[in-house]
Structures are given as C-alpha cells and as structure tokens.
Design a protein that fits this description.
By secondary structure, this protein is an alpha/beta fold. The protein has two domains: about 200 residues, 2-enoyl-CoA Hydratase, Chain A, domain 1 (Alpha-Beta Complex), CATH 3.90.226; about 50 residues, Lyase 2-enoyl-coa Hydratase, Chain  A, domain 2 (Orthogonal Bundle). About 45% of the residues lie in helices and about 15% in strands. It is built from ten helices and ten strands. Strands 1-2-3-5-7-10 form a six-stranded mixed beta sheet, sandwiched between helices. A four-stranded mixed beta sheet has the order 4-6-8-9. A hairpin with a 2-residue loop joins strand 1 and strand 2. Helix 1 runs parallel beside helix 2 and helix 8 runs antiparallel to helix 9. The protein is globular, with a radius of gyration of 19 Å. The mean pLDDT is about 95. The structure holds ligand T3D. The site of ligand T3D has 23 residues, from helix 2 and strand 6.
Amino acid sequence: MSKLVIVDIDRSVAVVTLHRPDRLNSFNAEMLEALHGALDQVADSGARALLLTGSGRGFCAGQDLSDPNVAPAAEMPDLGHFIDRYYSPLIRRLRALEMPVVCAVNGVAAGAGANIALACDIVLAARSASFIQAFCKIGLVPDSGGTWFLPRLVGTARAAGLALLGDKLTAEQAERWGLIWRCVDDDALQRESRSLVEHLAGQPTRGLALIKKALQASAGNSLNGQLDFERDLQSEAGRTADYSEGVAAFAQKRRPDFKGS
Ligand code: T3D
C-alpha cells in the first residue's frame, strides 16, 4: 500500500491526507492511484463525511512535472490520456461522493491541486495558503474542472485573470471573492476543519448528499428543470429515517440522533 496518501477512518469521519511533503504533495502516478484507492476505501467504509488535506507546508502543487509519464521528451506524451485516466475521474468521484467533502487547504494549492480543492463541497484555507492556476505558466490549460469551477465561483473576469495570468491568489482574497468558504488562522485550520467535518458527519447526511446533488445539477438546469429536480429529491429525502427523526426531535424539543439513512 502506498504511503503517499494517508487514510484515517474513525467511525463516521474519514480523513484523507496527501503525503508527499518534500514535493509539496505534487502527484506522481503512484500517488494518483493511491488517492483513487483512498476514495474507494472511504466510499465503502460507512463514513458520513470526508476531510481532504495535505501534509507539510503545501496542500498540493498539482502534477509532478518530473514524472516520466508526463514530462516532455523526444516522443511527446499525450497528456489527455493522463487526464482521462486520473484527474477527470478524481473530480467526478469527489463530486459524486454521497457525503459532504471538506477540503482543508493547509498551504499552496497549485495547478490540479487548486482545482481538486475547488471540487470539494466546503473549502477552508489557512491564512498563509494560496491558490495558483499555474497551468498557463507552462503552456497548459487548467484541467481538473478549473475552467468549469472558476467562472461559476468568481465570475468570468476574475476567472480569466486567474487562468491567464497564473498569479497567486491569497486565501484571504479567495474568501473575499467567494472562491472558498472561509480562511482561518494557520494554527486553527486543523481544529476548525476537524470540527466542521465532525459536525457534518452527525447531520442527516443522506439529506446532505441530496443537497449536494441539487446544487451540482443547478449549473446545467433551467429554473423549471431545477424545480422538478428539487421535487424528486425532496420525495427521496422525505422517505429517510433522518427526516422522521428530525421532525420528532423538533416536536420533542430534544437533540436529533441522525443516522445518515
Ligand atoms: O501533466 C499532466 O498530466 C497534465 C496535468 C496537469 C495538471 C497540473 O497540475 S499542471 C500544473 C503543475 N504544477 C505547477 O506547475 C506548479 C509548480 N510549482 C510551483 O510553481 C511552485 O513550486 C509553487 C508555487 C507551488 C510553490 O513554490 P515554493 O517557492 O513555495 O516552493 P518550491 O521551492 O518551488 O517547491 C518545493 C519543492 O517542491 C521543490 O523541490 P526542491 O527544489 O526542494 O528539490 C520543487 O521543485 C518541488 N515541486 C513543487 N511543485 C512541483 C515540484 N516538483 C514537481 N512537480 C511539481 N508540480
């Protein structure tokens, strides 16, 4: 088993840590395989919320540019194959995971590393962290959903500036622009993200998974389409045990005991 991604599952809370700190957690093929394996493990574990973070001073510097699979050589690699095999499925999986995914960006998030963070449901970042769409500096195009997430999160003008200039965006500015949920002091990041993910894991997580689905679908739907989709999801949510428990707890003026079912 690879040591490049650490998985820690404690009952309903899963923590996945990118662990290649001497390379700012940049991805080689082994680490990408390991991250996919980690998400399999989380999905099968009964965990109800996931925290994704990084070891050391960076969150993730994207693709390891020295990886022989992608490094330019006499015979130029087709990077599209690598994207198809690893990065795009990774983003699809994070989005489809039926639990809230919190990302704690502990340091620089560059290239695919930035966009993997943006694919998570709630992003907290340490004040010293930053986001860099580094692709343009090496002649590449933002991948891992960057060109989809950026305009939706910050608008087209800011998306174009970030993607075409590749400038560093501080965590504070990312919060002000609505790119992330919140920026917190460095020494509070692990505590706050842990407490957030524990809170989420105790909530009606079946319902939270449906909320996640609804929010994601809205980008491709008309208002009419979205109203219909909300109705269908509400039918499903209304049949969960957590809905019965939530209403009973409200009536009895007690704390609900949600099971995620
Ligand atoms: O290729 C494909 O499959 C297509 C997919 C592409 C997806 C992508 O993610 S493309 C974008 C790849 N990422 C980058 O271009 C970012 C490259 N890194 C940087 O620009 C800088 O390292 C940072 C701005 C992220 C951080 O700068 P700084 O000054 O804090 O740290 P540093 O000194 O540059 O990095 C520390 C070490 O990590 C250093 O190694 P050394 O000198 O101590 O031996 C550096 O080379 C290494 N490192 C950082 N990023 C990468 C890396 N090594 C390989 N690949 C990296 N991406």
